[in-house]
Prior knowledge:
The complex is a heterodimer.
Chain A: H1 2-10, H2 13-32, H3 40-56, H4 63-70, H5 74-108, H6 114-138, H7 141-159, H8 166-187
Helix pairs in contact in A: 1-5, 2-3, 2-5, 3-5, 3-6, 3-7, 5-6, 5-8, 6-7, 6-8
Chain B: E1 14-23, E2 26-36, E3 41-45, H1 52-59, E4 67-72, E5 75-76, H2 83-86, E6 87-90, H3 102-112, H4 118-126, H5 142-154, E7 160-164, H6 172-187, E8 191-196, E9 208-213, E10 216-222, H7 223-227, H8 233-240
Parallel strand pairs in B: 3-8, 3-9, 6-7, 7-8
Antiparallel strand pairs in B: 1-2, 1-4, 4-5, 9-10
Helix pairs in contact in B: 3-4, 4-5
Amino acid sequence: xxxxxxxxxxxxxxxxxxxxxxxxxxxxxxxxxxxxxxxxxxxxxxxxxxxxxxxxxxxxxxxxxxxxxxxxxxxxxxxxxxxxxxxxxxxxxxxxxxxxxxxxxxxxxxxxxxxxxxxxxxxxxxxxxxxxxxxxxxxxxxxxxxxxxxxxxxxxxxxxxxxxxxxxxxxxxxxxxxxxxxxxxxxxxx
Amino acid sequence: xxxxxxxxxxxxxxxxxxxxxxxxxxxxxxxxxxxxxxxxxxxxxxxxxxxxxxxxxxxxxxxxxxxxxxxxxxxxxxxxxxxxxxxxxxxxxxxxxxxxxxxxxxxxxxxxxxxxxxxxxxxxxxxxxxxxxxxxxxxxxxxxxxxxxxxxxxxxxxxxxxxxxxxxxxxxxxxxxxxxxxxxxxxxxxxxxxxxxxxxxxxxxxxxxxxxxxxxxxxxxxxxxxxxxxxxxxxxxxxxxxxxxx
Lengths: 190, 246
């Protein structure tokens, strides 16, 4: 099932388009606005799109009916999809997390902080999984992306002082949202 | 496990019993039941909105029934050990994402069941889509989309085929192909259940007939039994479903 879900992800042109433009934007922003991993604050939007697309693309052309008739155990199928998404996202997140610091090192000679790179990679991967879960709940790409961008760029800055560290928030909310999404996915009519 | 294996007598049998579905406070299926058996083409006939698609969606595990059971091989669809090799489904549209190619769509389905990639080319050839396999589904005509859906259903060479309005959107050549094909499936001992609101198109294809009207079964039996004293299936159908508000 994981192989089937991987096959779906990589045969979708939108997946590659999103990843390529996210990396390109991150590299560009590194030169334009800042050094290090600061541009990730913006380029993480690309990972939101990737996550939402992974689950919402099921609802294009009635593909969800094919998916659920060939893999009718829904929770397992969704878990396979999230696993496949993590497999695709992890290297892409690493590339984006590395690109900023590498450029900075090349230009300014400051060393790459490995721990920092690892944290950004994990952050982007978890953010993608959260986005996929929101996509499952909303079943609409544009709505999903809008809600997540609204949360990240409008709501979170407002309540920031009441929240723990970004990373801690994400580590807690990812499993919660994945479980909520799986329960909704199992219960409802396709 | 021994208890999850179908009883020999239930292999290839579709059993629907006491199915109830409510939507928005309205009962769209009012406790329907029927059977479809191997070696026969069963026509599930009724006017638009009678509850055909709702029944098939519940049978395929896509929608949840409020009461009753719908079984394939004696088990609910989601409990099938090997769904792709047990039952194939053709619902409306292509069932594929428009930006994937036809071949890529069949590939992921094949992978989900561990089928060899060569099987993808076999079913493409079977439905006559070999030349369009590398084209994106978004560029397919309605008829090509239906052929892709049929190819998807046939990947696992299943013993049961479930088709919702399979003749919709097909040209005369496509209709002839599907009719001949479904007769051959039944002749080789497989189960075919198809829904339709087109009576005239089906009289030569079906062995058994189940007529549904406004969420209730109004007739079941062999083609001859249901046609009865009427001139043909179409006349019988209109007599059985008259006043359905069409």
